[in-house]
Amino acid sequence: MNRIERIEQMEEYLDASSEAVKKLGEALDRYESVQKQYKKLSDYYGSSAWMKDFEADEKGMLPADLKRGVLSEDAVYDLIIENRELVIRMLKLSGSALENNVL
Fold it and tell me: Quick one: 17 and 58 in the same domain?
């Protein structure tokens, strides 16, 4: 690879990396901004209030047009598992970056 090709390739790496870092920062800002809401949702799921709301839904006591994915038995659970896996992934990526002196 000659000098020009190397510089062009490094420019591509710079552009791609800059865009990825910017988007990750924005995504982390959004993620961080919903953590209090996520905690409340997680606490609600499986609580006595959730059970009562779930039973009311099962008995047809809620309006038919009410959005109620939160009362499904899988939606919140799946989110909790996905969030856990994402946090583990972020930890592994952070550890790898530190080990490889990327930071």
Answer: no
Q: How many domains does the chain have?
A: 2
User: Element (H or E) spanning 82, and its range?
Assistant: helix 75-99
Domain that holds residue 87: 34-103
Return d(Cα 12, Cα 16) in angstroms, integer: 6
Sign of CA dihedral 73, 74, 80, 84: positive
pLDDT interval class at 1 (50, 70, 90): confident
CA distance 103 to 27: 19
Q: Report CA torsion sign: 47, 53, 57, 59.
A: positive
